[in-house]
Structure formats: C-alpha cells, structure tokens
Design goal:
Helices cover 48% and strands 7% of the residues.
C-alpha cells in the first residue's frame, strides 16, 4: 500500500510538472506573437510617416542634385531615344449632365473626308440641342461601295469617352426606341445645307421633341462655315483633330509607311484627283482618256450638261498628270524627291501617269511600300485605304492636291492646325492658262517658271482669313480647310487677307 501510494504521488507530481511546463511554453509563444505584432505595427507606422515626410521634403532636397532617384540628362536622353514607350493613362473628362431632349441618328454620305466633316458638324449640333447622338452610320452605297462601319475606321470608344463632357453618345438606341426604328417608325429627313445653329434650334429641335428620335440623312455641308459662335467652331475642331482618331490598326500601318518614307529622306504627297468617279463627275479629263460610263443615266446628278473645256479654263477641273509634272518642274521641285501618291486607283493606270513618272521617277504608293499581306484586311475598303493616305499626307514635307475636293480641303485644314505645314494650293485657273501658252510656244520656259513661282509664293498654307461671301456659302472658303477660330497664330506670320 505504501509503495502504491508513493507511485500515485509521483504520478501526480509528474502530471503537475508537465502542466506547468506546457503553461510556460504557451505563455512564451503568446509573448513572442504579441512582440511580433507590435513590431510589425510599429514598422508600418514608421514607413507611412517616412513616406509622408519624403513627399514633402524630397522634391526640395533632391531638386537639381544627382542621386540614384534622379536620372542624369544623359540617361533621360537615352530613355527617350529607346524603343520603350511608357503610356500614361489619361482620365476621361467628366460626364456633362443635362436634360436630354431626345435622340439624333445620322447617316453620312460621301467619301471618308466628306463624312468626317459631317460627323464633326453633327456632334456640334447635338451638343447645342442637348440631345443624345447615336454613333453615325457611314455611307455604303456611293461610288466607293465600302461596307466599313464607324468602328472599322475610327476608335469608337475614344470618340465616345473623349467627348462625354460635351455630348452623350451611344453606340445604339435604347431597346424600346430601337424596336420602333426597326419597324420603320422614325422621322427621317435631310437638313438644309449651310444652315446656322438657329435653324437647328427652331426647325430640328421641335421635331426631336415630338418624335423622340430623328434621323438626319445626307449630312454633308449642313452647318454654315461662318457666323457661328466661337465655341461651336472650337467644338468642331475638337471633334476633328482629337476625338476622331483612327483605329489602332490604321494608325500603326500609317506610321509604318511614314517611317519607310522618312528613312529615304524628305517626301512630297501628291493627291492627283483623277480617280474614275472624279473624272466621271467633272468630265474634265475625258479628252485624253477612254469614255466613261454614262453619268447622265443617273437622275440624282443635278448638273446634266458639262462643257469640260470651259470648266478647265475656269480652274474647276483637276490638273492632269502632264499639267502636274510641268507645274512641279516650274517650281523647281527636286526630280529625285519621293512623291507619295495619295489616291485610290488612278483612272488609266500606269499609262495615265507615264508623263509624271518620267519627270519624277521616284513615285511611290502604299501598295509599293508595303507587302500585300499588310493591306490584305484593307482591300475593298476604300475609306480605310483613304485613312492611310490621310495619315501620310499630314506628315509630309509638302502636300500638293491637284483638285480642291474634300480630301484636299480637310487635309489642308488639319495641316494648318498642326502648325501651318507647307501645303501647295494650286491656282488652277492661272496654271492652265500658263500651261496652254507654254505648250503653244507663246511663253518661254523661264517666263513660265517665274510666273508659276510668283503666283504661288503666298499659297503655301500660311495664315489667312477665310473668305466670307454672304448668301453664297458654296463659293466662300470652307471651314475645314481653314478653321481660323481654332488656330494658334505664329508671332512671325501676320494674317493675310
């Protein structure tokens, strides 16, 4: 019994000893955990305080002094010249809040640049009517037969977000209104050409309020050139030069063409307006080309009878390649300069361009600078191909249009906006007279050349006032060729009248 009790006492003492040890270990672990937590909190607090102090004092301490945090000018230069580009995300402007008066749908007509100007006008009109604009529909039925949608040519998301402080733009109508339009329950009409903003307030806005949705078709040249509030004009410019950005695919391919051209030195962009549809419209170069299809079979042509010789003498026709070659030679353009042909298919092809090619052998096109695979997705999409030409035209050392069509006008205005880049604006009426006199031998080359130079000395895209002709908007200067309200006037260049 005594032995058993001793064993029991020993077991009890052993168990108590183990319990005491376990309690001690637990308390030690708890202390270590508390110390770690406290240390972490303390370090984090110190780090926050140091960061705050650094934000206040670091710019003053480090400004102008070299350190591991401030790169040297040499390293900055190296970074800027490297191929690594860091894009900073720009926050979109805040949404403009206004009472929505309804929805405006628009169908643009014409080629790329005609539609581009119309889109700018429709955004400005939507802004000042306080309506929601639906992303414009592009022309698919004219000569170009281009099935491209808006988002195939322009960055639609950038278009919407970059203008959201001015106007609400949607990709499509709300479902209920969309169903009404699909059933044909929509009021559609062409607005009156060259109208000021009061026309849209008094005639168009009541229709939008009445029908909730209004569809405007044939939207080219529907807003006046002059007599508008400066803020309207500036909004047109903002849309044209900022919001209407081409898709990344078009932008990247355009940059590649420009890089290829720049590697070989300066280049001139020539826009020879002798595509089939222009010849068909003006009938100006048919005297040296095969007959075209019968334009008079189309009832929507307003002008039926055309005297092509008279139009040419009045300067209303594009210059032919022969006339263009003479003009460039008279202006002492280097015969070895790269001349990029910004145009679609030339009517008459290589044979039609033979004289110009002989005088300036370094003629190039996007099709000759790029591989067929590069243009595979752009084939049969004339507006997307025109967008490539547009980008190259903007960056050229000299831009020379042979006709004042929409491409020539809009590119001229964009080059003015970019700093009065040299655009040779040909006086065709004078040129055809001088050329005819030179060709018939009544004018020597030296006299011909000096006359051409003198006539174009002040026709290089320099600052100038728009010509305003009341009640004759078609004859006055086009807003998009000279958006003077949006231009920064160089100090060294005075305005000319």
């Amino acid at each position: 019994m005594g032995f058993k009790s001793m064993l029991v006492d020993d077991d009890m003492k052993l168990e108590k000893g183990k319990g005491a040890v376990l309690v001690g270990v637990s308390r030690s672990r708890m202390k270590m955990w508390i110390i770690r937590v406290a240390t972490t909190v303390l370090l984090w607090t110190c780090l926050v305080q140091l960061t705050a102090i650094g934000e206040i004092w670091a710019p003053r301490v480090l400004k102008g002094s070299p350190s591991c945090f401030t790169p040297s000018p040499r390293s900055v230069k190296a970074l800027s010249s490297s191929s690594v580009v860091v894009f900073s995300k720009v926050a979109p402007p805040p949404k403009r809040k206004y009472k929505n008066n309804g929805y405006l749908m628009v169908s643009c007509n014409g080629g790329l640049n005609q539609m581009r100007a119309a889109i700018c006008d429709m955004v400005a009109i939507s802004r000042y009517l306080n309506v929601t604009l639906i992303v414009p529909e592009l022309d698919k039925t004219s000569f170009w037969a281009d099935p491209s949608e808006f988002q195939d040519i322009f960055d639609v998301d950038h278009f919407i977000t970059s203008l959201r402080d001015e106007v609400r733009i949607l990709k499509e109508l709300p479902p209920r209104l969309k169903r009404r339009v699909e059933f044909g329950m929509v009021h559609s009409m062409p607005p009156v050409s060259w109208s000021d903003i009061s026309y849209y307030h008094h005639q168009i806005l009541p229709l939008i309020r009445k029908h909730k949705v209004l569809h405007l078709n044939k939207t080219d040249a529907r807003l006046a050139n002059n007599g508008l509030h400066p803020e309207i004009q500036k909004l047109r410019c903002r849309v044209n030069y900022s919001a209407l950005r081409f898709t990344s695919q078009i932008e990247e391919l355009g940059k590649r063409v420009i890089r290829i051209l720049r590697q070989n030195g300066p280049f001139l962009v020539l826009h020879p307006a002798i595509q089939k549809w222009i010849c068909w419209h003006s009938q100006a170069v048919l005297r040296v080309t095969p007959p075209l299809i019968n334009r008079y079979a189309y009832p929507w042509w307003k002008e039926k009878v055309i005297d092509s010789d008279m139009k040419r003498k009045d300067g209303l026709c594009p210059l032919t390649p022969e006339e263009t070659a003479l003009t460039l030679r008279a202006l002492d353009i280097d015969q070895n300069i790269q001349i990029y042909i910004a145009a679609g298919e030339i009517y008459g092809g290589k044979r039609r361009m033979a004289t110009l090619s002989a005088a300036f052998p370094n003629l190039v096109r996007k099709e000759t600078l790029l591989e067929p695979s590069d243009l595979r997705y752009f084939q049969n999409h004339s507006s997307q191909m025109a967008a490539l030409d547009y980008l190259v035209s903007l960056e050229s050392d000299i831009f020379v249009p042979t006709y004042d069509g929409n491409m020539a006008k809009v590119v001229e205005g964009h080059r003015r906006f970019l700093g009065y880049r040299k655009s040779l604006l040909l006086d065709r009426k004078l040129l055809v007279d001088l050329i005819d006199r030179y060709n018939n031998g009544s004018l020597a080359w030296d006299e011909f050349s000096s006359s051409v130079k003198a006539a174009h000395m002040n026709r290089m895209g320099m600052p100038t006032r728009r010509v305003v002709i009341p009640d004759k908007p078609k004859e006055e200067d086009y807003f998009y060729s000279n958006p003077q309200e949006c231009l920064q006037l160089p100090d060294e260049q005075p305005w000319t009248s």
